[in-house]
Amino acid sequence: MPNTTSDVPMIEARGVVKRFGHNVVLRGVSLSVARGEVVAVIGPSGSGKSTFLRCLNHLETIDGGHVAIEGEPLATTDARGHCRYVPDAEVRRICAKTGMVFQHFNLFPHLTVLENLIEAPMVVQGLPRAETVARAEKLLDKVGLSQKRDNYPARLSGGQKQRVAIARALAMQPDIMLFDEPTSALDPELTGEVLRTMRELAEERMTMLVVTHEMGFAREVAHRVAFMDQGELITARPAQEFFADPGHERARAFLEHML
Ligand SMILES: Nc1ncnc2c1ncn2[C@@H]1O[C@H](COP(=O)(O)OP(=O)(O)O)[C@@H](O)[C@H]1O
Ligand SMILES: [Mg+2]
To answer: 181 CA distance to ligand 2 centroid (A)?
Structure first.
């Protein structure tokens, strides 16, 4: 029975295990994200942040634990440790609830900005072109790039490319947005415009999970901060609280290094 009550977590990960060969990169990661919540994921390089995000929308498969999106199981593990995914069509339907933004934009270089935005809604959702164009134009206006509509990505700055990438993810009308270091590839003077776009999205109550090194963003925009280290999610506490007292030695050491 589909769960429709609003207190069902938008994202629920429980005991998620991920191995690459013999390398265990997620060692039982648990995190629950509520509707409209913004959670920043921080931690040293190699701690498993990207892998965790990718496990939530099936860019990686998990080896143990449970993942559910809006109350719908994506993968579950039985008492004998066998991890099972729901059928492919269900996986696709459930993963369509999440949109993802990557460090390196991943725009289609041979398509204009507008074409980048309408491609998936037309091909994946099967919507008529006119409808996808109208939606895309609204989104370009929202991220302040209407005037770049007919440009190719190569003509844009990094900050503009990333705002297009955000608009492109939104064009699929996701309920949840996953960001993997969206400003890490940008020159410092370009991070502000991208963070501003993300802040606006947060103000509209989008559910967001954001891997970031931007401590200012984590402190001001995120409701909670999750700290990962060596494949474990060590703590996820309210942002104010976390920055006042991370509560764990490894988190404190990381924070001192970052600030
Ligand atoms: N596709 C992969 N194949 C093998 N090992 C991987 C792969 N992706 C990530 N890893 C390993 O998993 C660990 C966690 O990586 P990652 O999730 O990228 O960390 P973070 O995003 O926190 O820097 C690292 O040791 C990394 O080398
Ligand atoms: Mg990463």
So the answer is: 7
